[in-house]
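wait is this the right file?? whatever heres the structure
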């Protein structure tokens, strides 16, 4: 059995970035940019008023100006040229005409029958956003490997670009196995449980911006398990199979992987929860056999699947790792590394109850997973430990 560190190293070495794709910039939030973005325009594209007020041909010797007209946002001012003693009513975002060298906000102005005077000291160069003051034509505004955030989308749109080249978003399969599982919309039945891993993994994927998700379901039957996993591999980049990866007589996932020539990268990690985790590859596809126990499944998602997804999408692994001070004692059984659910308050971590891999009750309220190495047998008050923040 390999260690947590070895498993993470294998994922790191095997996960290669996906191909690239040109998409509508509006759909690119969270994606890794695969091009430089160069602006074809100045921004602002013209001298622009930053206030509602009056644009003037300012001259230190004058105290009043004639108001010759009005310019609102979007009005063409190319035929206007203010001369000495002239001003024009102007609004925020409007183009400042030739001959205007300052904009005075309306709160400082008095308009008396189109003669403008002022109740404050005025001067030139006020309230004009200069053409190109933010971006000059030909400037590189974003670089390759930048992760697109909402401001980036605004910035790219600002310079009139609709489509951009990004690292493709992964297509993700969630494959659910288990004869005991019924839909949450079904009536509860004897010996059956509501299937919850598909919605849990769907939510986890969505939280980190992965939303191209397909669902597959199979009974615990060798042929159907093989066919379903085969279809999921053909149709997706990353395949998350839930359950059926242990050694029970009705666990057919491992034999399906073997049958389908999935190359085993690792199977079983010296950890709790999630010992039976499988990771394999086939033709640039990444295949995880997640334990069916919900707590184990989600832990493996956070630590391993999310790592692989980040690498193939060229994104930063999103879980922040911080050091926390433990304020409780925890005795480990056996020599496995453990991921333990904790509540965190001002870097102080309190261990939650109900740590079992089959349970989600405390996981649902936990802030972080602390990592306890395999060779540590007990952690106690004031111990300083690594925590993966789940927020
Ligand atoms: P398995 O890994 O298939 O042996 O399943 C381990 C435990 O997890 C069993 O108690 C299952 O009933 C439970 N389980 C497996 N898959 C799911 C699922 N999709 N939703 C909820 N519980 C599950
Ligand atoms: Mg099962």
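ok assuming it is, sequence goes like this
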């Amino acid at each position: 059995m390999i260690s947590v560190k070895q498993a993470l190293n294998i994922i790191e070495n095997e996960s290669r970035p996906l191909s690239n794709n040109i998409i509508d910039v509006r759909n690119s939030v969270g994606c890794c940019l695969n091009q430089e973005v160069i602006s074809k325009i100045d921004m602002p594209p013209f001298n622009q008023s930053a206030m509602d007020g009056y644009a003037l041909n300012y001259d230190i010797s004058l105290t009043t100006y004639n108001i010759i007209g009005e310019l609102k946002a979007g009005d063409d001012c190319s035929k206007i040229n203010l001369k000495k003693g002239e001003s024009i009513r102007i609004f925020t975002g409007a183009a400042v005409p030739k001959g205007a060298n300052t904009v005075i906000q309306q709160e400082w102005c008095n308009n008396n029958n189109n003669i403008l005077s002022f109740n404050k000291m005025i001067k030139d160069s006020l309230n004009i956003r200069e053409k190109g003051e933010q971006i000059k034509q030909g400037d590189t505004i974003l670089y390759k490997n930048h992760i697109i955030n909402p401001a980036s989308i605004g910035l790219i749109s600002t310079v009139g670009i609709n489509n951009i080249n990004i690292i493709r978003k992964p297509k993700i399969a969630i494959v659910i196995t288990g004869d005991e599982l019924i839909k949450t919309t079904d009536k509860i039945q004897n010996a059956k449980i509501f299937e919850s891993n598909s919605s849990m993994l769907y939510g986890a994927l969505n939280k980190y911006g992965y939303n191209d998700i397909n669902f597959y379901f199979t009974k615990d039957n060798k042929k159907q398990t093989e066919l379903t996993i085969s279809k999921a591999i053909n149709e997706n980049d990353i395949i998350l199979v839930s359950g059926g990866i242990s050694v029970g007589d009705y666990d057919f996932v491992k034999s399906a992987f073997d049958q389908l020539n999935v190359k085993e990268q690792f199977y079983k990690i010296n950890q709790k929860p999630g010992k039976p985790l499988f990771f394999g590859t086939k033709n640039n596809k990444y295949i995880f056999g997640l334990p069916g126990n919900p707590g184990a499944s989600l832990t493996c998602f956070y630590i391993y699947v999310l790592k692989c997804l980040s690498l193939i999408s060229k994104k930063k692994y999103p879980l922040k790792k911080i050091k926390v001070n433990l304020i409780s004692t925890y005795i480990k059984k056996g020599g496995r590394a453990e991921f333990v659910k904790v509540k965190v308050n001002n870097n102080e971590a309190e261990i939650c109850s109900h740590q079992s891999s089959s349970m989600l009750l405390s996981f649902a309220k936990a802030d972080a997973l602390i990592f306890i190495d395999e060779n540590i047998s007990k952690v106690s008050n004031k111990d300083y430990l690594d925590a993966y923040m789940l927020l």
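The longest strand covers residues 337-345. so i think its the right one actually
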